[in-house]
Amino acid sequence: VLDHKGTIDKYMGDCIMAFWNAPLDVAGHEVLACRGALKMIRRMNELNDTWKAEAESEGRKFIPVRSGIGVNSGLCCVGNMGSDMRFDYSVLGDDVNLASRLEGQSKSYGVDIVIGAKTRAAAAAFAVLELDLIKVKGKTVPVHIFTLLGDEQLAADPRFRALAPKHEGMLAAYRGKRWDEADRNRLACEVESEALGLHLLKLYHLYEERMLFTLMLLRHP
Known about the structure:
This protein is an alpha+beta fold. It has helices spanning 29-57, 94-109, 117-122, 152-156, 158-175, 179-195, 201-219, and strands at 7-12, 15-19, 69-71, 77-82, 87-92, 113-116, 127-134, 143-150. Strand 1 and strand 2 (15-19) form a beta hairpin. Helix 5 (158-175) packs antiparallel against helix 6 and helix 6 runs antiparallel to helix 7.
């Protein structure tokens, strides 16, 4: 966070809350937040490699450590919040709450980083795929959510540029209830994402299960 000009707000159990663009304006803060998130995941993978080697050398079972990150952008209130007895420099607002909800979705979709639509628009050059259209807790209107997979280098990779339209095609066919087309795209996305080392099988299996469940309902109402 600090390496990418962010402000650490607080530690909450096993969670870190941080924000950008305050107390000083930070140009391109959405992009910096995304770079920081990607670096966190890379560092976590490095630590897991180290811990795995240590566990194997000592004959212990290795259990990898995973983390989920939610990033959202928008207007919020920032400053000293609280009372005359206790206060804290922090941020409040609907977009802050959404960032927390996005982090909670990382486990459901089997991805490391979930970002909101505003962040996705600001970091358009990054490698991003849409996850879903969902109504998160505390929201009455569904929101599009995305997973951040890599920076501009991955986005420019011909293999990712081939994967992205197939992924979009899967979602479009799924939402249009064109199940055969959606499943063909899903299978292609599984193969191509694994070749890139993106580990999105849980996401694609989720859509497979949804389609199978829907077809079962149609056949046996």
